[in-house]
């Protein structure tokens, strides 16, 4: 799921946005001349959520919207689901946006692990799309890096955000992330390499970096929130803990220069949550986002990500303070950023057992529903027979269709808020 209000990059932006944010330094030779996701359409396709340019976040925002509706007991429109499945490439991957789903993906199609992982989480939750989800997971496995992790753009160095969102997809699809290895290394081992340990300043220990920079790790709240979820093997939709469950956060500690979180993903997640709580307490129960050349501002998306991460770790009391901040300060941000933003807030509400229909005076579900096709109903449907035979066929759009990493100004959480590749405290 983030942030400074709008903008750029989430969990790892789509390949093009990633390359732009990193000065194109991370772009592998194979993608040096790759085309961007399909250009902005003159007319938005039927079934798509949101009215802004879907070139960089179409699949992302669609997936988050569908997943959020499902968690809140809303049955999404068939056209919305059909638009998403129709975006899948024949090899199982997704790019941000394909203006012409009938045209086969080729070597220049910007396949994106973040968009693909978001789609997997949505489709598995909705049910009836096992074939599409399995093909997507197979593709994700095929582009796993030798360190056990992933980047948003296959072939680039792994990053904490992308590795975490893929872990969520694997779990959603019924896989055991620890057993999905490359070069003998698991995704959890890859994540561990991004966590600041005993050689860092005490106040930074437990945080995660997006990626090493010049061989060094710098704390990044966006990556930390993402990794706190990933280390627990969880995705965007976190089931609320039962009443009374509250585990205090515990900062990373060192003994003889060794981190007590090393080799223990759950402990790593708790240490990451402790770092987030310290930042929230310092800033008035919200996280900050600093875009290049700009002063730090409250980051709504990353704050929502932190709420979900804290709830996932059963830190209920710690999650309540930033949740209350969100209830008072997120309305304008969500209205500006559309379906992915509304979805992120719905997921934060869901993780904390809060009613999304009464969130600081806003009915998040009504607002989210209004950004897309009219829902088919209010009760989550039972899993239907798998009708994905054509979902993975680039020759055309599924018969039942009625009618895509990072959005510039249109994203959410991991994505929009800013899984900016900028190191930040």
UniProtKB/TrEMBL annotation:
Alphabetic keyword roster: Membrane, Signal, Transmembrane, Transmembrane helix
Signal peptide per UniProt: 1-19
Record field: compositional bias (Low complexity): 370-384
Highest rank taxon of the organism: Bacteria
Renumbered residue ranges of the record's region Disordered: 370-392
InterPro entries: Terpenoid_cyclase/PrenylTrfase
Residues passing through the membrane, by range: 397-416
Record-linked SUPFAM superfamilies: Terpenoid cyclases/Protein prenyltransferases (SSF48239)
Protein name (Swiss-Prot/TrEMBL): Squalene cyclase C-terminal domain-containing protein
């Amino acid at each position: 799921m983030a942030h400074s209000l709008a903008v750029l990059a989430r969990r790892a932006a789509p390949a093009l946005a990633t390359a732009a944010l990193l000065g194109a330094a991370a772009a592998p030779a194979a993608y040096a001349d790759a085309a961007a996701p399909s250009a902005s359409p003159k007319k938005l396709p039927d079934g798509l959520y949101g009215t802004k340019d879907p070139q960089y976040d179409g699949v992302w925002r669609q997936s988050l919207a569908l997943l959020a509706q499902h968690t809140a007991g809303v049955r999404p429109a068939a056209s919305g689901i059909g638009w998403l499945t129709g975006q899948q490439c024949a090899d199982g991957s997704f790019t941000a946006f394909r203006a012409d789903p009938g045209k086969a993906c080729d070597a220049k199609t910007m396949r994106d692990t973040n968009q693909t992982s978001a789609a997997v989480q949505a489709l598995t939750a909705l049910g009836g799309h096992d074939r599409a989800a399995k093909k997507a997971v197979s593709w994700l496995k095929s582009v796993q890096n030798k360190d056990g992790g992933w980047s948003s753009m296959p072939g680039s160095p792994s990053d904490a955000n992308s590795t975490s969102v893929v872990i969520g997809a694997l779990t959603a699809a019924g896989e055991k992330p620890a057993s999905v290895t490359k070069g003998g290394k698991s995704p959890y081992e890859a994540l561990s390499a991004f966590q600041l340990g005993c050689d860092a300043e005490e106040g930074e220990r437990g945080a995660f970096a997006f990626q090493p920079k010049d061989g060094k790790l710098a704390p990044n709240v966006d990556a930390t929130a993402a990794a706190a979820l990933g280390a627990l093997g969880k995705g965007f939709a976190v089931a609320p803990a039962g009443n009374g469950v509250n585990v205090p956060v515990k900062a990373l500690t060192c003994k003889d220069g060794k981190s007590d979180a090393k080799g223990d993903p759950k402990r790593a997640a708790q240490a990451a949550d402790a770092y987030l709580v310290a930042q929230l307490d310092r800033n008035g129960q919200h996280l900050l986002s600093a875009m290049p050349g700009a002063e730090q501002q409250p980051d709504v998306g990353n704050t929502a990500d932190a709420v979900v991460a804290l709830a996932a770790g059963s830190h209920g009391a710690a999650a309540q303070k930033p949740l209350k901040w969100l209830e008072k300060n997120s309305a304008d941000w969500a209205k500006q950023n559309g379906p992915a933003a509304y979805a992120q807030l719905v997921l934060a509400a869901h993780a904390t057992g809060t009613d999304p229909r009464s969130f600081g005076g806003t009915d998040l579900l009504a607002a989210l529903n209004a950004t897309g096709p009219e829902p088919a109903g209010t009760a989550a449907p039972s899993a239907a027979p798998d009708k994905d035979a054509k979902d993975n066929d680039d020759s055309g759009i599924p018969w039942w269709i009625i009618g895509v990493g990072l959005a510039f100004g249109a994203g959410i959480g991991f994505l929009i808020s800013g899984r900016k590749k900028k190191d930040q405290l």
